[in-house]
């Protein structure tokens, strides 16, 4: 299943996933440096959906706060 995800890196709220009409918002504590925030997003979404991290893939928006993510449930 594909999702549009808004990422909030460096957030004190994180790790947290909130659903809205626009899609999902993922709050992570990691900063957007050297892919740390992307890796955290994959881990948080895998935990949220109850799947292994290898089943979550960022398919678009690697350097953007708005990402397209595919979850193989």
UniProtKB/TrEMBL annotation:
Positions of transmembrane segments: none
GO CC terms in record: cytoplasm
InterPro entries hit by this protein: DUF167 (IPR003746), YggU-like_sf (IPR036591)
Organism the protein comes from: Microbacterium immunditiarum
Family: Belongs to the UPF0235 family.
Official protein name in the record: Uncharacterized protein
Cross-referenced Pfam families: DUF167
SUPFAM superfamilies: YggU-like
Domain of life: Bacteria
């Amino acid at each position: 299943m594909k999702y549009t995800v808004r990422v909030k890196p460096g957030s004190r709220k994180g790790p947290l996933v909130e659903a809205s009409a626009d899609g999902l918002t993922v709050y992570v504590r990691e900063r957007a440096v050297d892919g740390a925030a992307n890796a955290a997003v994959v881990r948080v979404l895998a935990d949220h959906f109850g799947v292994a991290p290898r089943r979550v893939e960022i398919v678009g928006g690697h350097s953007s706060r708005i990402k397209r993510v595919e979850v193989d449930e």
